[in-house]
């Protein structure tokens, strides 16, 4: 049986913005959202959401995600789609993966390259200041950033591994495996638990994460809202 702390993973946006990421929060009472230039995510504290809260956030950003239970919304908003993800949590001791590539911590100098690569492969999730949420790491080839992974939503006891991205011309070389292992080990060294979200249809990534000792905890929905 899961502890109460693990139940926080059912509502990761809300708890991240109450804990480690509270400085990035916009508080609408029962709805907490990341600042729009940081991350386009919001989450309700409980199921009693109201239309005014989500409408207020929509005035700041016209394309965003409510994570968790399906939100109520007015006719000024459109539900574009429901992205169903598997939430996977680390159940190993340490990521025993051989790191053969040089892994570089991506400081301010690499912000544009990081933003460009993630949005090339996974457009819409990574904003100008998303890199402020945690540490991001990359692999370079011929001076070009070709693969990255890093940290996104953070709670006191859990850190989300995110932006696990490889340039389409450099897939199949083990970069994602090495970077994910590197980030996992960093989180473990902080005495926190790594977890991640992956689209339930992304069978290749799910297989990789299983090999890296991630196990499926359950499903969680990312409701993509568009303001009219």
Ordered list of secondary-structure elements with their pairings:
Blueprint: H1 4-7, H2 12-18, E1 25-27, E2 31-34, E3 41-44, H3 51-58, E4 63-67, E5 77-90, E6 104-105, H4 111-121, E7 136-141, E8 144-154, E9 158-166, H5 175-189, E10 193-199, H6 203-211, E11 214-227
Parallel strand pairs: 3-4, 9-10
Antiparallel strand pairs: 1-2, 2-3, 4-11, 5-10, 5-11, 6-7, 7-8, 8-9
What keyword list fits this structure?
228 residues; alpha+beta; eleven-stranded mixed sheet; 6 helices; 11 strands; 24% helix
Shape: globular
Please tally the helical runs, counting DSSP H or I stretches of 4 or more residues.
Answer: 6
Q: Nearest-angstrom radius of gyration?
A: 17 Å
> Whole-Å distance between the termini?
43 Å
Question: What letter string, H or E per element, gives the SSE order?
Answer: HHEEEHEEEHEEEHEHE
Largest sheet: 11 strands, mixed
**Helical fraction:** 10-25%
Largest sheet, order of strands side by side? 1-2-3-4-11-5-10-9-8-7-6
Structural class: alpha+beta
Q: List low-confidence stretches.
A: none
What is the number of E strands? 11
The fraction of residues in strands falls at 25-35%
Query: How much is the average pLDDT?
Result: 94
